[in-house]
Design goal:
By secondary structure, this protein is mainly beta. It is built from 2 helices and 24 strands. It is globular and about 55 Å long. The N and C termini lie far apart (52 Å). It binds cobalt (II) ion.
Length: 288
């Protein structure tokens, strides 16, 4: 990465840790890999959870995620393959298709379901939980359902491609807007030996998760394998280079909230009292 690395010396992010996810099961028995939100990486402010789901066996996902509540944060579903039907208690429905993104701001509360629209074949994607600042935890729920054709792609002549879900890269801005933590969420494909230097807000926490092949990441060009998440140091940019067979990764960054977190299952608030209130509101049918 020679020259580009020199240019950003001193502010280029480094890999400070690599973590592998753990096998987990959620919803009505969907098999997935929990990468953030497990003992190896309990959270990375403002990110509370990252799950990767990926299976071509219907039995691993067919039970889906029947009705369940959320309050106090955002769930972000990025589908790579397969179809999921989404519905909530306020009459919102949607179909998540391959390449689509749903950025759901649960705010004061929704009850929703996420159910596969297929009985077999590949189902693959990510769900990320993004915390909301205290002042926004009780906002009205909001959906940003983005079709695949509305996600811009930067395609460079050298084969590097970058899908911009939220935030900006190379003058291209993603379709998801007005998110409290000013996030960046990129899907980066790197042919072998090809490099991308990505500007990142210097004080934002960031991670990269390699989900195909391998990539060299950060100022020290550390090789990160498929299935490893790299936690990045702070800095103005992050460097990526495709490994011997190329690589594909998501790069996610966001403004840390530095607020107390009180978490109970699908409720993420600031205090235990607010959690008790969330449970009481849910049980009393006040998530409407
Ligand atoms: Co949910």
């Amino acid at each position: 990465m020679g020259q580009a690395r020199l240019q950003s010396a001193g502010s280029e992010r480094r890999v400070v840790a690599t973590i592998r996810g753990r096998a987990a099961s959620d919803g009505a028995g969907v098999k997935l890999t929990r990468i953030i939100g497990q003992p190896g990486l309990p959270d990375l402010d403002p990110f509370l959870m990252l799950d990767e789901f990926g299976s071509d066996r219907g039995a691993d996902y067919i039970a889906g995620f029947p009705d369940h509540p959320h309050r106090g944060f955002e769930t972000v579903t990025y589908m790579l393959a397969g179809r999921m039907r989404h519905g909530d208690n306020q009459g919102n429905v949607g179909l998540l298709r391959p390449g689509s993104v749903q950025w759901m701001t649960a705010g004061r509360g929704i009850i929703h379901s996420e159910m596969p629209e297929q009985e077999d074949g590949l189902m693959q994607g990510f769900q990320l939980w993004v915390n909301l600042p205290a002042k926004d935890k009780m906002v009205k729920p909001r959906y940003q359902d983005i079709d695949p054709e509305n996600i811009p792609v930067v395609e460079r002549a050298d084969g590097v491609t970058v899908k911009v879900l939220v935030g900006s890269f190379d003058g291209v801005t993603g379709p998801v807007t007005n998110v409290a933590t000013d996030p960046l969420y990129l899907d980066i494909t790197l042919p072998a030996g090809r490099t991308a230097i990505v500007p990142v807000e210097a004080e934002h926490n960031a991670f990269a998760y390699v989900f195909e092949g391998q990539a060299r990441i950060g100022a020290e060009a550390q090789m990160v394998e498929r299935g490893q998440l790299a936690v990045l140091s702070l800095g103005e940019s992050a460097a990526f280079e495709g490994g011997p067979a190329g690589g594909r990764l998501i790069l996610v960054a966001g403004r840390p909230l530095r607020e107390p977190v009180a978490k109970y299952g699908p409720f993420v608030m600031n205090t235990p009292e607010e959690i008790r209130q969330a449970i009481a509101d849910y049980q009393a049918g006040r998530f409407v």
